[in-house]
Write a structure and sequence with these properties.
single chain; 271 residues; Rossmann fold; globular
């Protein structure tokens, strides 16, 4: 997407989109008019750890940020073609530390889609390892949370998911792991210790191959005592939320996200 196209979308949405040269890793700030400066979402895009960038997803992020009336910092973490694990995780930690130095953790939440959802979930576990105070919660859309790729939904939904497949997941996992064991919770957060973690808001489709990753992650965290909110949408494609507001299903997903942000931060923080 060109800067001209981004500028046009910004004007229509009344959203400021800016690459932050001062950030320690590539970050695109998406700031809707009226959003408070003391609350934010730290966003991790999808793409199987192999492709994607904040600029590629800027249109979708801008629309969702405007709907939630919350500024978003979208992280351009290193992809597997440039650096295998732990490159993306190291960048995620760096981005979080940087943002948490400006915005209190209780006014900060993570947001991730697909591989970005898995990265956001794993980041929570990594922050606990590092004894870094975590955010208020995390919004996870269709998180790819188990790089063993053994969930039954890979088979159950192989004919209903046109956007992701077991073959793609296998290739992407191999590139990202580069020999690192898939049983490490830093790449497969479903296998982690979730005790004491903040609220998770998990949304997925019943017809996508990552359905079980999302539900198993939610169940694992809930069994550990985490406050987990789960919404399963019927018959929608993988990462349908990014089409907001083009479909009713995406409107429902983002409306729910905004409601949960109100509850998580307090409605006064978003206006």
């Amino acid at each position: 997407m060109t800067d001209t196209e981004l500028s046009s979308k910004r004007e229509r949405l009344d959203v400021e989109i800016e690459a932050l040269d001062s950030a320690p890793v590539p970050i695109l700030r998406v700031r809707p008019a009226g959003a408070r400066p003391d609350a934010a979402l730290l966003h991790f895009h999808g793409g199987g750890y192999r492709k994607g960038s904040p600029r590629m997803f800027a249109d979708s992020v801008a629309r969702i940020a405007a709907a939630c009336e919350t500024q978003v910092f979208s992280v351009g973490y290193r992809l597997s073609g440039e650096c295998a694990f732990p490159g993306a995780m190291d960048d995620a930690v760096t981005a979080y530390r940087w943002l948490a130095g400006m915005i209190p953790g209780d006014h900060l939440a993570l947001w991730g889609d697909s591989a970005g959802g898995g990265l956001a979930a794993a980041l929570l576990l990594r922050l606990r390892q590092l004894e870094v105070p975590g955010p208020a919660g995390a919004f996870l859309f269709s998180p790819w949370a188990d790089l063993r790729n053994t969930a039954s939904s890979f088979r159950d939904n192989e004919h209903t998911d046109e956007r992701f497949s077991l073959e793609q997941a296998t290739e992407a996992a191999a590139a990202y792991l580069s020999g690192h064991p898939a049983v490490d919770p830093m790449v497969s957060p479903v296998l982690g210790d979730w005790a004491g973690q903040p609220r998770l808001i998990v949304q997925c489709s019943d017809s996508e191959v990552l359905r079980d990753d999302a539900l198993l992650l939610a169940r694992t965290a809930e069994d550990a005592g985490v406050d987990v909110r789960v919404k399963v949408h019927e018959g929608v494609p993988h990462i349908w939320n990014l089409s907001y507001p083009a479909t009713t299903a995406s409107e429902l997903a983002i409306s729910y996200m905004a409601e949960q942000l109100d509850e998580l931060f307090g409605s006064n923080l978003r206006r």
